Amino acid sequence: MGKLTAAAAAAMAALTLSQGAQGADEILIGSTSTSSSHYSYFVAVNQVINDYAEGVNASVVETGATVDNLRRLSRGQVDLGLVTTNVGYHAYKGTGAFDGHAVDSRLLWVYTVAPQNVVVRKDAGIATLAGLDGRRLNPGITGSATEKTTEAVMRTLGISPDYVRGSTSDIVSAIKDNRLNGYVKSGVGDRLDGSSLDIATFTPIRVLSLTGAQKRTLREEMPDIGVVDVPAGAAEGIPAYATWAFGVAVHARPGLSDEAAYRIVKAVMEHQGPQANAFKSLEGADLGAMTMDYGTVPLHPGAARYYREQGMDIPDQLQPR
Question: pTM to 2 decimals?
Answer without folding.
Answer: 0.69
